[in-house]
Write a structure and sequence with these properties.
mainly alpha; 371 residues
């Protein structure tokens, strides 16, 4: 399963194994961040119904966090050799740096949890996921997708099996064990890593990923809607756990377990569908903005600036929520948060470059020498 290709010359010299920054990836990351803000404070609809435009805001349920997770895998792939991950000894140092980053992200996550906002903080789960992908950094894309597929099948089974253990858990336990289940989100990170290994910078790859992501997502949602229509009360079911209405037959319950298209439900259809959406969004952003010249760069800059410092923007919006006298929850509140994030990121990026938390985490990771 591991790749035995020779180490790239740049890696032999101890140079960085990453390349030119893909601006479209930053734009996609900004879309994920702003979508997660909408889910937190935007007062969005409870359940998406494509026939009812008033519910379309519910697209922010689950999909932004999925996009964020797939992008985490993409980032890991881009900073660990892109299509050609290095061999020993460089890959060992890359893995050590990733472990340091994982510990830092977990630490920041628990600090944000301590703010006691009514928001499920995803960062501790991300830190764990970084550690879990360390052994597969040199695995080929096809095998990465195969492992991701296995995680998608196991996702609802693990979610249902572990749910009773968190029945009386507090906010911390719920967000670590239920809302952002590790098996489910590991599938997303592996998909993102496979996307990076496939050569995301190539135009042909971007087109192929856009078409395949859209096709996979559409197929999953059509199959789920036809075979496992949402039961009554599904809009108010707990996030991260499959739901079957009381009185369901065994066949109906089994269909809801694997095939339900309910957002943020950890079913196989939900995992496959949201992963397809994420891949399509990433491919579209890179196709539109990368390699298109200075005008495209300038148009992308506001969102690319936000996406270049995801840890700072994500953490910052939770700090602001904690400082407010009342919890904000409206489209207007989301608009102010989005505008503030864009203005801050543009100014910081223009004059200071890398985001403050990104710079701090990078400094910690650099204690592991690449030479």
């Amino acid at each position: 399963m591991t790749d035995t290709r020779p180490v790239p010359p740049t890696a032999v010299r101890g140079a960085s194994v990453s390349g030119v920054r893909l601006q479209g990836v930053d734009v996609a990351r900004a879309v994920a961040l702003l979508g997660m803000m909408a889910a937190h404070i935007g007062g969005i609809a409870d359940q998406l119904d494509w026939s009812d435009p008033s519910t379309w805001s519910a697209v922010a349920h689950g999909r932004p966090s999925t996009l964020f997770a797939v992008l985490a895998g993409v980032s890991i792939g881009l900073t660990s050799g892109r299509t050609t991950p290095p061999g020993p000894p460089t890959i060992g140092r890359v893995r050590a740096r990733l472990a340091v980053r994982a510990a830092a992200v977990v630490g920041i996550g628990f600090v944000l949890i301590a703010l006691d906002t009514p928001v499920y903080v995803i960062l501790p789960t991300y830190g764990v996921l970084f550690l879990l992908v360390i052994p597969v950094l040199r695995v080929r894309p096809a095998w990465l997708l195969a492992i991701a597929g296995a995680c998608a099948v196991l996702s609802p089974i693990v979610a249902v099996a572990t749910a009773p253990a968190y029945a009386d858990a507090g906010m911390v336990g719920q967000q670590l064990g239920l809302v952002y289940p590790v098996v489910t989100f590991l599938a997303y990170v592996l998909v993102g890593l496979a996307v990076a290994r496939a050569g995301l910078g190539a135009r042909s790859t971007q087109v192929a990923l856009l078409a395949s992501g859209a096709l996979v997502a559409a197929t999953a949602y059509v199959v789920g809607t036809v075979l496992a229509p949402l039961p009554s009360g599904a809009a108010f079911a707990f996030p991260g756990v499959p739901y079957a209405a009381e009185g369901s037959t065994p066949a109906e319950a089994l269909a809801q377990l694997f095939l339900s298209p309910r957002d943020h439900s950890s079913t196989t259809v939900d995992v496959v569908g949201t992963a397809g959406v994420a891949v399509a969004v990433i491919a579209l952003c890179t196709l539109v903005f990368d390699g298109r010249g200075r005008v495209a760069e300038r148009i992308a800059f506001p969102l690319a600036a936000v996406g270049s410092m995801p840890l700072t923007i994500y953490s910052g919006h939770l700090v602001v929520i904690a400082m407010l006298p009342e919890y904000p929850e409206s489209a207007e509140a989301w608009g102010w948060f989005a505008l503030g994030s864009v203005v801050f990121a543009m100014v910081w990026r223009r004059f200071l470059g890398r985001g403050p938390l990104e710079r701090a985490v990078a400094a910690l990771a650099s204690t592991v020498p690449m030479r």
